[in-house]
């Protein structure tokens, strides 16, 4: 049995589940922009989100009243440039989400696997990794990797052709997880 490594890349900025206080629409879109406000030597940095329907602004706090010298020049410049990798790092950071009482719309998270899954019938240990802590159920990610339905993944798990240590529905993909495909697995 050989080991295959798959990298999970995030393709787009996810939305947030939050009812708009103005129009009650359930989603806020990520603008892909930071707002940096300087007051003397102190900085406030927010990630700007907008209601998908009425465009009401919701600012998610990144830093409040932080001393400018606490940020490295490269990091400060990344906030000013609206660096997409930095935005994704914050968006998938559980501490950032908890601090802002924000919840990601997991259905709207688009990921692209980079790597190859072995052909049907070939046993392999699959290691899936991501740069971000993905809040997606592992079963859903495995279904995407194998290009099968979620119910097919559950059947493979119950009949023993797919081995995974955990619950496919509740265990989150996070930054890494692994599963095993046995010799007789089929799509």
Features:
single chain; 187 residues; alpha+beta; 2 domains; 4-stranded antiparallel β-sheet; 5 helices; 40% strand; elongated
Task: Write up what this structure looks like.
The chain has 5 helices and 9 strands, in the order E-E-E-E-E-H-H-H-E-E-H-H-E-E. The chain has 187 residues and is α+β, with helices and mostly antiparallel strands. The strands form 2 sheets. It has a 5-stranded mixed sheet with strand order 6-1-7-9-8. It has a 4-stranded antiparallel sheet with strand order 2-3-4-5. A hairpin with an 8-residue loop joins strand 8 and strand 9 (172-181). The protein is elongated, with a radius of gyration of 20 Å. The mean pLDDT is 94.
Brief overview:
It contains five helices and nine strands. The protein has 187 residues and is α+β, with helices and mostly antiparallel strands.
Query: On the 0-100 scale, what is the average pLDDT?
Result: 94
Strand order of the largest sheet: 6-1-7-9-8
Shape: elongated
Rg of Cα set: 20 Å
How do the helices and strands line up, and which of them pair or pack?
Blueprint: E1 2-10, E2 16-17, E3 27-39, E4 42-51, E5 57-67, H1 73-81, H2 84-91, H3 94-99, E6 111-114, E7 124-137, H4 138-146, H5 150-159, E8 162-163, E9 172-181
